[in-house]
Amino acid sequence: MRYMTAGESHGPEEVAIIEGIPAGLTITTNDINEQLARRQHGYGRGQRQVIETDTVTIMSGVRHQVTLGSPIALNVHNDDHNHWSKIMDPNIPATVENSMRKVMRPRPGHADLVGGMKYRHQHDLRNVLERSSARETVMRVAVGAVAKKLLAALDIDVHGFVTNIGPASSDLTQLTQYKTLAELRAVTESLPTRALTAADDEAMREVIDQTKRNRDTVGGTVQVMATGVPAGLGSYVSADEKLDAKIARAMVGINAFKGVEFGGGFTNATKYGSELMDEIYWSAERGFYRGANHLGGFEGGMTTGEVIVVRGLVKPIPTLYQPMQSVDIDTHEDHRASTERSDTTAVTAAAVIAEAMVAIELAKAILDKFDTDSLSRLQEQVAAYREEIKHF
């Protein structure tokens, strides 16, 4: 499985092409639109989420709501393009009139300056901003929705939620009360910040509200969990085949993500081996299993069959309504950075995007290991493999 996205933040369309999804998977626009709506919702989002109503059009690869095995093309229209049609028109040359709203003062923490240097966009950093914008993640969530449908057909569930926003954080030991991700999802998706409890949600909303009053932005951490993943996905034989490494790369590839950890994560560095290693047990019903999950479902770059637990650190958004120090790329004079319409925080959306990226990497790993032509054959092979592993 592989995919590619294209589109600019204020361009006419966001598009994606997915190759390698087996034939026979039922997928509808509602399946994808549900995930796109989740990305748009969440406390702390900005005005663009009011302008946009993200809905997907399936252009190819699906007939009568069932995948054909051929490339799937997805399209999401940018409603906000109506206000930018002349400025972003790809079919007419530049003029004074259609070159308005230039970005000449790069924002600290954004791709503006370095992207301008790299691609020689020295006359308008909007050429960087438009593609480096997190608007592109709408298509990664769309691709992730397809991946999640594939995983669900194999009894694999994936869910992302928020563990902290600024100083307001959740006690992760509370996760033990949930027997399934469906139970956890019902709670976190009912709260505006996707927190673990109503009390956590209230504390996070207070942080966001104060940050907005300060004309500032705030970051946080999201956690993604996956259940039903069979042991043995990924490989130890080469560094680039380690599945946890692939997931880490996919997570850091999300806009504003600056760190990733699995299981106990960085706190594992403060522990001794006797406290940390997930001891091995066996039962006739389960086969081999671990007594704990400090390593987040991975050993040697391979899944262990335990719950996958991965967290991502999301830095504050670099577009501030009280802009920071910058320099005009034309005059080299000190100025305040440019401002664009933005969110106070995107952590609530980041949980959905991270969930999509983990789903994509798990789907890739499944399709690397088993037959990718037909869903029914894939289901047969995964079921047989699970039995083989159980009786090892």
TrEMBL record:
GO molecular function, one term: FMN binding
Record-level GO cellular component terms: cytosol
UniProt binding sites for NADP(+): 39, 45
Pathway field: Metabolic intermediate biosynthesis; chorismate biosynthesis; chorismate from D-erythrose 4-phosphate and phosphoenolpyruvate: step 7/7
CDD domains for the chain: Chorismate_synthase
Top-rank taxon: Bacteria
InterPro entries: Chorismate_synth, Chorismate_synth_AroC_sf, Chorismate_synthase_CS
UniProt-listed PROSITE patterns: CHORISMATE_SYNTHASE_2
Cofactor: FMNH2
Note on cofactor: Reduced FMN (FMNH(2)).
E.C. number(s) listed in UniProt: 4.2.3.5
Binding positions (FMN): 131-133, 255-256, 300, 315-319, 341
Catalytic activity, reaction form: 5-O-(1-carboxyvinyl)-3-phosphoshikimate = chorismate + phosphate
Keywords, ordered alphabetically: Amino-acid biosynthesis, Aromatic amino acid biosynthesis, FAD, Flavoprotein, FMN, Lyase, NADP
Subunit structure: Homotetramer.
Function: This reaction introduces a second double bond into the aromatic ring system.
Stated name of the protein: Chorismate synthase
Protein's organism: Weissella jogaejeotgali
Gene: aroC
